[in-house]
Amino acid sequence: MAHFCTKCGTAYVPGARFCDECGKALAAATAPATAPVRPVGAGVQRRHLILAGGALAVVIVAGGALAWLLAPEAASASSFSRAINAHLATDETARDKLLCLTNLPYQKEEIRVASYDSSTRQWLDILVRGGLYAAPVEQGSGGWLAQSQFVYALAAPGKAALRGDKLCVAKGVKVAKVSGYDQVRDLGTQQVAMAKATLALTDEAAWFAKSADRALILQRLPDGDLEVRLPLSLVDKQWQVIDEAQMSQAAMTGVIGKAPAVQGAGMLDKLKSVFRFGGHPAVGKWQAAMGNVLEFTSDSVINNGTSTKATFTTKGNTVTIAPEGAGDAAMDIIVSDDGSTAQISMGGMRVTTLRRMRD
Q1: Do the bridges between strand 300-303 and strand 306-315 make them parallel or antiparallel, or are there none, so unpaired?
Q2: Which terminal CB of the chain, N or C, has fewer other CB atoms within 10 Å?
Q3: How sure is the predictor about 1, in pLDDT bands with cuts at 50, 70 and 90?
Q4: N- to C-terminal Cα distance for the chain?
């Protein structure tokens, strides 16, 4: 097909860019673009691959989530803290044991103290400063042996602080620091641990929070240092606080809560010796026959407020104590199976009997 210049009418060869006669620019004919050939069904196949890949991803994610849900809870600071906090939140008796004072009959409207009982009077004077009791009134007792008494009347803030016959400093407590999660033991098929937790008070009573004698009041609590040791076990794949009877049961049967176990003499002491926190069976406060109080920690002996570093060696229920700087003057403490009494001996000779001071 011939092509002609639109300006001068001269014919030109197809594909030429300019007219040979007049030099006019010519419009080159362009061939229509050819669409690429697309295989039949390619889009459908691609969609199927996308759907299949998505389904596989869902299966993998769901499988991972299921495995995570079914896995036992790991022993960690967070899991032990959660277990102890849950225990203290639900067990009112255990919580009150930490938060409440039981050393006097606080439920009474009046407490009468003999004039010579300076220790009790000093303590009640602290509560007077806290507003829980009115200032004491001195009265004579009369009779053949006349002596004066001091009467302390319970004030309204004191009544508000009572829970039953106990005087409480706070409503709650929580874990501030915990250890023992790295010392899990297998008793049969059961995993157990002995946790040591340092606690912090929550929702403190107003009188206690503002008291200038706060430190002295804390010392009167059953666990004045707010440190507790609690047995834990992995139950239904979660760590839970258990009681010592359950721990004994785990040792006998290998399972918590499946079958009753007979607790033999000294069983709990043997179980506790499995866990090492630098402690020993004599840790705690003891009262001697003469009335003086001795306290043993994991590394010290405290006598009348004087602390002496010591080395403790445990064999069964016998704890050998070697105070620093005492040469060969070591002594043995033989703790009873139930842990309530102990005998002190030196060189095989019994020195005195101790009775554990409890709440």
Answers
A1: antiparallel
A2: N
A3: low
A4: 118
Burial of 335: CB neighbours in 10 Å, binned 0-12, 13-18, 19+: buried
DSSP conformation letters of 283-328: -EEEEETTS-EEEE-SSEEEETTEEEEEEEEEETTEEEEEETT-TT
For 344, phi then psi, to 5°, come to -100, 130
Nearest to 100 by CA among 228, 212, 223, 229: 223
**Amino acid sitting at position 257:** G
Instruction: Give the separation between CA 340 and CA 358, rounded to whole angstroms.
Output: 9
Sorted by sequence, the CB contacts under 8 Å of residue 26 that are 6+ apart come out as 3, 5, 12, 16, 17, 18, 19
Do residues 318 and 333 lie in contact, with contact meaning Cβ atoms separated by under 8 Å? yes
Sign of torsion, CA 251 316 322 227?
Answer: positive
Report the percent of the chain where pLDDT is more than 90.
25
- Is the pTM value of this prediction over 0.70? no
- Cα separation, 262 vs 12, in Å, equals 117
